[in-house]
Amino acid sequence: MNRRTILGTVAALTLATGLAGTALAQDTLKIGAVGPKTGPLAGGAEVSFWPNVQLWAHDVNAAGGIDVGGTKYMVEIIEYDDQTNPGETIKAVQRLATQDKADFVLAPYSTGLNIASAPIFQRYGYPMITHTAISDQIEDLSNKFPNMYFLLGGATGLAGGVVEVLSDMREAGEIGSTVAMVNVADAFGIELAEAARPRMAEAGFEIVYDNSYPLGTQDLSPVIKGAKAAEPDAFVAFSYPPDTFGLTEQAKIAGLAPKAFYTAVATAFPAYAGRFGAAAEGVLGAGGIHADGDAFKEYAARHMEVTGQAPDFWASAPTYASFQILQMAIEGAGTTDREKVAEYIADNSFDTIIGPIDWDENNANAKYWTVGQWQGGVFKGVASTGRDGAVAAMPKTGWE
Amino acid sequence: MSARDWQGLSISAVLLALAACLPLLGDDYYLTIGVTIAMYTVLATSWALFSGPTHYISLATAAFFGLGTYCTALGIENGLSYWMTLPIAAVLGALVAGLVGIATLRLSGVYFVIFTLGLSELVRQIVTWAQNVSGQKGLYVLTEITEAHIYWQLLGLGALVYLAGWAIGRSRLGFALRIIGDDEEVARHSGINTARAKVLLFMVSGATASVVGGMLAPRYIYIEPSTAFTPMLSFLVVIMALLGGVGRLWGPIVGVIPFTLLWEAISASFPNQTTLLLGFSFLVIVYLLPRGFVGLLEGLRRRVLQREAYA
Questions:
Q1: Residue of A151, A168, B297, B310 with fewest CB within 10 Å of its CB?
Q2: What's the pLDDT score for residue B249?
Q3: For residue A379, which phi and psi values (nearest 5 degrees)?
Q4: Where are the domains positioned within chain A?
Q5: Strands, E assignment, B111-154
């Protein structure tokens, strides 16, 4: 090939791709995704949020796109890092709405970042199906932001689930009535502990050790030693990711091995089983999923194949389901008109990978998983507020 | 007041009026960036009021900011009107700054820096502890206040800070601070009550940051310690002020505007490398603009004047 032919080919190719580009541009839906890639919540978002954004876009495009009134639209994801800073989340969503002219924006990651950006979602009429917002003010929020939906559940249900599981185990004669309860002194940990205390008392449990530790505490051995000295039948920790790992590690070292051992956030992460291996067997944790269901198994396999990592057993699937709902609503409404799509979400129930979703009077999903347990290397849901597929909790037998 | 003062004041007034028109453009994106710029301008300018002349680097901005945020959030939750919470935030910020100032401004150099950094962590832990004890969770600030309102409030506060800075600059207090910055020993020997002067200015700076926090609370809606007391805020304020230059009252704003735009450009174009590129820009700033934009502009001006003198 001489230089002229090369130039000609290049020019033709450029022209072709350019044309293809414009043709594509007409059949593309721009979808914004804002979440932490840096900052304190980046770790959680890298497990539960970002891989699902990637997977969902992959799934939609592999299937030929989203069907809007007979025309297939591919999705193009525009990602922004909000640095776990609500000011940046606000800016990024604003940028998506006005500069990038995004057709839809996926709900951000975590309670605070969702609520901070809710007014902007509202202003531009974007439906906001939150997958990781847990709030006790859902009623006020949904009154003020009618486009806001809640998928993951609430602290009351999560804490109630723990008490329910312990009660069942006591009834089966596996544990007694004494509980050591600790919590991380931060928003969600406090909220769960507050919700659990009266329910424990009501169910006839005696809290023999009740303590808290600041967020970011490195040395958790005093906490575990204190709990061990109280010789509880059950250990319950409303913990965050770093301390979930820290407490488990210390409990192993100190030999705190009650028949019921519960840690909260991040127990459902694959990394938990990765770190503790066989010792994780029988550990109870916040969240859970119908892990034996075909829908989840299939989803987990795709997740692994496309993103190269496994989903967690709590927020991952609901996150994906929230994107599914958005897709179904666009297809169901047959338009990209946000108002009509929002209307469609409000008026319908959806069949997702986590099962059927319908909304209560506060636009919340009232049926969610509350407690799971590591059984045979899989974190299976053992309690929920109305989901199918729960397995019975089994007593933990030491750390071996 | 001299004719030059009047000239400066009227130029500032015109610029302020122009800035106040931004929400009328109707472009929400620019307004959002405007709020960010206004917020950091007020914070950096009030920071420079204290740290500029005294050379005491304070990393306590986040402590006062968070204090104000909580003040507004708690006030609204307990039925106070929003407008009442701002003066309370100011008084509280000034009080805490005063206490801290009395306790620590005798420290100098790196000890002071570390203490102020620790302060925001301390306040944050206290708030968290109080939440844990009371069972109080994250706070919700649901109001009808829009971004445009917040922007105008910040502009108003910015104008106040400039007036205060201008007034302090030509008062005995300002003169005393400049002497302290040059040599604290000399200042003390000339009969200046150095501690009092420093504490007073620190209080102005603390009160301002606290009010800014209060004004921003309705924007964040959901208030929790980790977002209200983010240490990043303290560092950004220092970096922006230094980028502008702290020797002049208008220095920080010359740093805030390009920095915010640069940050925005980086976040928009390289969402996966924000932190990396940000660190890189810090390096460039430190190496190429050690005296900030003010130093650069004044250097240029001097060169032009010299050339004129030769010609």
A1: B310
A2: 87
A3: -90, 105
A4: 3-154+293-357, 155-289+370-384
A5: 139-140
Token duo for residue B48: 């420079």
Q: Which residue of B has its CA nearest to A135?
A: B138
Q: Which fold has domain A155-289+370-384?
A: Rossmann fold (3.40.50)
CA atoms within 13 A on the CB side of A334: 2
Instruction: State the smallest CA–CA distance between residue A150 and chain B in angstroms.
Output: 16
**Paired tokens of B1:** 């007041």
Distance (Å, whole) CA A369 – CA A380:
10
Distances (CA, A) of B224 to A39, A115, A392, B127, B220: 15, 12, 36, 9, 10
The ipTM value here is 0.80
Domains identified in chain B, total number: 1
Nearest to B40 by CA among B305, B301, B253: B253
CA A227/CA A222 separation, integer angstroms = 8
User: What pLDDT does A24 receive?
Assistant: 45
Q: How does residue A26 score in pLDDT terms, banded at 50, 70 and 90?
A: low
Q: Which residues of chain B have pLDDT under 70?
A: 1, 135-137, 311
**Backbone dihedral angles phi then psi of residue B183, each to the nearest 5 degrees:** -165, 110
Helix (H) or strand (E) holding B16: helix B3-20
Q: Which of B229, B211, B216, B228 is nearest to B89 (CA)?
A: B211
Selected for mutation to probe chain A from B221, B224, B234 (highest A CB count within 10 Å) is B221
Record: contact A115-B222, CB cut-off 8 A: yes
Cβ neighbours of A111 in B, within 8 Å = 138, 222
Residues forming beta bridges with residue A364, ordered by sequence position: A150
The structure tokens listed for B236 are: 């950004």
Total residues found in chain B within this entry: 311
Mean pLDDT of chain A, nearest integer: 90
**Contact indicator for B206, B93 with CB cutoff of 8 Å:** yes
HEC per residue, A283-301: CEEECCCCCCCHHHHHHHH
Residues 6 or more apart whose Cβ sits within 8 Å of residue A291: A297, A313, A372, A378, A379, A380, A381
Identify all chain A residues contacting B138, using CB atoms and an 8 Å cutoff: 111-112, 187
Q: Which domain holds residue B26?
A: 3-310
Which pLDDT tens digit goes with each residue over B15-27? Answer: 999 999 999 888 8
Q: What is the pLDDT of residues A133-154, one digit of tens each?
A: 988 788 888 999 999 999 998 8
Class of domain A3-154+293-357: alpha beta
CA B251 – CA B235 distance, rounded (Å): 17
pLDDT recorded at residue A9: 45
Contact A326, A151 (CB under 8 A): no
Q: What is the CATH number of the domain that holds B282?
A: 1.10.3470
pLDDT band of residue A17 (cuts 50, 70, 90) is very low
